[in-house]
Amino acid sequence: MSSFFYRAKDKNNKIINDFINAKDITDAARLIQTKGLTVLEIKEDENKLETSINIGSTRPVTRNTTLSLREKKAFFTSFYDMYSSGLSMIEIFKSIMHSARNTKISGICNQILRKLDKGSSLKDAMLKYSYIFGKAYTMLVIAGEASGQLQQVLADIKRNIEKQEEIRNKIIGAIAYPGVIFFFAIGTGLFYSSFLNPLFALMSLGITRVDVFRLLLITILQIVFVFGSIAGITYYIARNKIIINRLIMLFFNIPPFQNFIINYYFSNYFSILSLSFKAGVPPAESVSLANSVIIIPRIKERLKKAEYMITDGCEITTAFNVANVFSNYAMSQVSSGEKSGNIEQMFASVANDYERKFDLIVNTITQILPIIALLVAAIPVVMIATNGYNSLFGFLTGF
After folding, report:
1. Fewer CB atoms inside 10 A, N or C side of the chain?
2. Radius of gyration over alpha carbons of the chain, in Å?
3. How far apart are CA 397 and CA 399, in angstroms?
4. How far from 230 is each of 28, 111, 225, 226, 237, CA to CA, in Å?
5. Residue from 141, 132, 121, 113 nearest 55 by CA
6. Which tens digits make up the pLDDT trace of 148-169?
7. Phi-psi region of 366 (alpha: psi -120 to 50; beta: other; left: phi over 0)
8. Which pLDDT belongs to residue 299?
9. Euclidean distance between CA atoms 111 and 97, whole angstroms
10. Per-residue pLDDT tens for 222-260?
11. Are 110 and 129 in contact (CB under 8 A)?
């Protein structure tokens, strides 16, 4: 089969530049017309796609391949910028593949390119890798392309990822300083138990430089081992979504953490709802996409029932009232939006309200945690001072 470049016009008079594989130019025209497009120009592509793919610069895509928030931001930012420039889908993914510094992104674009080159639609290509991009973002891209609003949808996805990244940075910022103090407390405790306490005990028996060096070496090795183990466990947990989800569900059962977790997830939930309605996704599918970001079983189950009710023709307000998981303010905004026809704006307003509540909790944590951390860090310091004074006093009075 040969590769053909074509220019065509859709029902909205939008000009599309893309490539298609066909037996000959007549077959290419037929395939383009089956997509509901009006052909303006067709010519054979002299440089086939396969010759431009550098396999060595990509990483193989597997079921375990995932993209971090930062990697998704890089991908969708490039996607948005290139689509806004008027490039075709094949040109977009080819450019991202060759320009991306991240080998995972290059590998994913490589696979999508191969599907597009074989005649697959963007919808089929993206759906195959929805587990990488996330169900919500994948379906938004598909809906945006179908409705002719892909540029706006990509801009909205980019902003949503930036918003999620900002929230994540707030969480990291809230625990960074207390974390440093916590590590200081651990290090101080280890230094006391492994070095100072034995040193004070040996002072009354007589101590040599060799003894001091031995104690110091043992202490350093213990501190390195403990800190290395903590860092390794933290890294493993951070990379394992299953463990993270289980920890979130564990903390959700602790009352002080419930509002923190609820506000975080509901802020993202209503953001996805707003984006979905804006992209023209049907109500039931929009709720289904938003449900994909919720991991708390009891809440997810109730929202799933609301999704089924909406599928059966029930109003969103009624279904959400039956679910009984959202705040009174959220329900009043949803009801108002459904009646006025501006429901996507109301969803955005609810998302901002949950984010505001989340920020208040983060600010409170930021104020309280350092105090708790300082008190914890003070414990080994007081122990060192007390035992050091007693040991030194006992040593001096022994003369």
Report:
1. C
2. 29
3. 5
4. 59, 37, 9, 6, 11
5. 113
6. 888 989 999 998 888 888 888 8
7. alpha
8. 92
9. 10
10. 889 999 998 899 888 877 778 888 888 888 888 778 888
11. no
pLDDT tens digit sequence for 359-372: 888 888 778 877 77
Transcribe 357-374 into DSSP letters: HHHHHHHHHHHHHHHHHH
303 neighbors 287 (Cβ within 8 angstroms): yes
Q: How many CB atoms lie within 10 A of CB 55?
A: 9
Q: What is the pLDDT of residues 53-79, one digit of tens each?
A: 343 445 556 666 778 888 888 899 989
Classify residue 86 as left (phi > 0), alpha (psi -120 to 50) or beta: left
Measure the CA–CA gap between 219 and 222, rounded to whole angstroms.
5
Among 76, 79, 81, CA closest to 157: 76
Contacts with 299 (C-beta within 8 Å, 6 or more apart), sequence order: 262, 265, 325
Could you give phi then psi for residue 17, rounded to 5 degrees?
A: -110, 120
Which position has the token pair 């008027």?
86
CA angle 260, 266, 272 (to 5 degrees): 145
| H runs (alpha helix) in the chain | 25-34, 69-84, 89-99, 103-117, 122-128, 130-133, 135-147, 150-191, 197-203, 209-239, 241-252, 255-278, 283-291, 297-311, 316-323, 328-340, 343-397
**Owner of token pair 């704006």:** 345
Q: CA-to-CA distance for 340 and 334, rounded, in angstroms?
A: 10
Instruction: Select the more confidently predicted residue: 384 or 339.
Output: 339
Of the CA atoms within 13 Å of residue 48, those in its CB half-sphere come to 10
CB 98 within 8 A of CB 163: no
Six token digits for residue 355: 């984010």
For the chain, list the domains and their CATH numbers: 1-46 (3.10.20), 178-399 (no CATH)
Q: Are 248 and 261 in contact (CB under 8 A)?
A: yes
Which amino acid type is present at position 166?
E
Residue 134 backbone zone (phi > 0: left; psi -120 to 50: alpha; other: beta): left
Pull the structure tokens for residue 16. Answer: 């599309």
What is residue 3's three-state secondary structure?
A: strand
